[in-house]
Amino acid sequence: MSEQFYNILIVGVGGQGVLLASEIISEVAMHAGLDVKKSEIHGMSQRGGVVTSHVRIGKKVYSPTIQQGEVDFLMGFEKAEALRFVGWMKKTGTVVVSHTTLVPAIVTSSKEFHYPEDAIADLKNKAHNVIDVEADKIAGELGNPRLVNTILIGVLANLLPFEEKLWVDVIKSLVKEKFVAVNLEAFARGRGIHLALNKQPEGRSMLRPRDNTPRLVRPHSSGVRATPL
Amino acid sequence: MKQLLSGNEAVARGAYEAGVKMAVGYPGTPSTEILETMAERHRSVYSQWSPNEKVAFEVGIGASIGGARALVTMKHVGLNVAADPLMTFAYTGVNGGFVVVSADDPEMHSSQNEQDNRIFARFANIPFLEPSDSQESKDMLVAAYEISERYDTPVMLRMTTRISHTMGIVEVIEPLHPQERKFVKNPEKYVMIPSNAKVRHVVVAQRLIDLAKYSEQTPFNYIESNGSKVGIITGGVAYQYAKEVAPQFDYYKIGFGYPLPLEGIRQFVAAHDITLVVEELEPVYEDQIKAAGIKVEGKKYFGALGELSPSRVAKGLKEAGLIDKVVVPEITQEDLFPRPPVLCPGCPHRGAFMALKKLGVAVTGDIGCYTLGVLKPLNALDTCICMGASIGNAIGMEKVQGSATGTVAVIGDSTFFHSGITGLLDAVYNQSNVTVIILDNRATAMTGGQEHPGTGKTLMGQPVGRTDIHELVKALGVKNFEEVDAYDFEATLACVKRQMAAPGPSVILTSRPCVLMPKRIMDEPYQIDLELCNGCSACFRISCPAIAASTETNERGHAKAIIDETLCTGCTLCAQICPTEAILLKSQFAKA
Known about the structure:
Helix content of chain A: 25-40%
Distance between the termini of chain A: 9 Å
Helix content of chain B: 25-40%
Shape of chain A: globular
Number of strands of chain A: 6
Radius of gyration of chain A: 17 Å
Low-confidence stretches of chain B: none
CATH superfamily of the largest domain in chain B: Thiamin diphosphate (ThDP)-binding fold, Pyr/PP domains
Strand content of chain B: 15-25%
Low-confidence stretches of chain A: 198-229
Shape of chain B: globular
Number of helices of chain B: 22
Oligomer: heterodimer
Largest sheet of chain B: 7 strands, mixed
CATH class of chain A: Alpha Beta
Structural class of chain A: alpha/beta
Largest sheet of chain A: 6 strands, mixed
Number of strands of chain B: 22
Order of helices and strands of chain A: EHEEEHEHHEHHHH
CATH class of the largest domain in chain B: Alpha Beta
Distance between the termini of chain B: 63 Å
Number of domains of chain A: 1
CATH topology of chain A: Pyruvate-ferredoxin Oxidoreductase, domain 3
Strand order of the largest sheet of chain A: 2-3-1-4-5-6
Mean pLDDT of chain B: 96
CATH topology of the largest domain in chain B: Rossmann fold
């Protein structure tokens, strides 16, 4: 465990719960006995701007921020935001991205700017390992659009070496009591996605699981396991 | 016990552990969470928001002279406001320990400038400590009280955004119980008439000599030796960046930054082939070290503008010929549309800016959410300098341009209480024809909705009487006063026109509260009838995040609009300006 180092960059738009997500991951790492730092910018970003949070986990962490080109896991709560930060990734890194689409007023009100036509495809052209999840849809099924963050944490949990119980305990301790049950459900849904992925053979269309869990598209490369677990 | 704490939470914890009796400040990113944490988790400590940083600082001085340990918090530019008491409190010294936290904002993530307040400490002849993570934020704050009391001086704890807002693991301990001090009459020390101040200035000079000795032996300034020929002198977050990219070098880590341990540094530099100073923003350490005749380099390689980062430090070290490799990103960056922060859906400021944009007058702005009115597509602000500046700026413009062109100042409620009152007094006294719009949303909204004298509640949650802005303005001598509902576009437009035409200074008070705080306002949402929508984009231009382009277009290929009902608060502004009346309440829509 001591040789492992994880650079996780979480990106989204103000109000999507980026900060809570990064806090959950950081608490889990601390309880697992590792050093952790998480850094983000509050302030202007709360007003619908881009929100990013850097989480760094290892035996000893110095810099609170990740160097561009060193991200192991890019968590995108909004697909164009994931694309915006894809250049921060290691080639061997993994993107976990929600299909969530949030088009800002500056795009709708001007001809100058455009929202990417297919951000997920663009991501796959750039990064080797992309796990795209219809987290917005699952969140809708669970009755709360704000659950995208916890669903993606569930997906990430499959890629990190921390026990299930730690994740559950930390979610219980950080989420407001009345939202605990639905967040645990969201976490489980995210967690289920990766397991489904690993069980499925090569192929695209068949990755849509029977039980109406989200569509998954296999990345180009051989697998989604980016770093040794 | 270990806790995951941000730098700001660690400072609050430190204040609790150090036996602080009074914590006071004014909200400002990145400092705000310190006092919020005090009020939330450490309620045995009395904490309060003051109307501005100067008052907060003065309240803290009073607490110190009264014998208690006091914590005063603010952002870097807040210390400009509090500079007056700071400069003279440095002369009187303290009774109970006194620490001012200056949270600087390199890179200006949420600020109008990126001044380096380490220079302020030197200017005021007071010591500062500079933490490089959450654990140090707590430890240094606790130590700062001991230094303050031992050397009879106010102490600055200098944070930066990356330290304040980074969470790290902190070992927390039980609170100390510092020996109680009593207020003792001592006018020679505390009454700074010239005859006393002259004596105190001598004390200040001697204190600096004593502190320089302390700086040489404090555990906060230490050497990490790796047997390297390369030495790095660094402090604050820059230390972390340097250790990240070049752990193999020898380090002189500076935690107690003024006065510098110049003798220790001299020996360290002599023992290395080359020594670089890695510090963020101004060459504060570098200049002092060079002035002492010690050979170092720094800014030449790392620059003085904006935040440092591991990459910037690595590039600088490479340029200096000390390392070979830097990380080169393998994946090309995407160039995408910008996503600037915007006024929230239902923000009551929107109506005021729509009216001002329509009038096309000069608008002097101020610091708050409404500063976002400058951005596209509202484009409704012409200046933003500092807290409270809008009114003075408007007076100056109006005096030189004449009232015919019309000058309007916009200022928020918290900013008006902070430092707008004196500007308005000037407008009355000097008979300016400015029109001042006080955007009263009853919250310090930009920093997260903190309480202020107009909200009816204190930081610790005690209900109090609200300061009535109308009564206050009347008392200042303003004759033209009108309250307007900024959700009513035509009424707001007419009101601004009327008050601009009125002779003498006018005040318009907008009456709608913030949509987020203290409680989220969600009325029935609106929807757009795509058969009636002609794709004119009028609603796009009011910059509401709830309005987006639909997939349908008009005959010229322009997108028709849709409303996201989960975001729409039902403020009605878009419906008021829609020329085809295509925007209807959801319930009306169902019927139609």
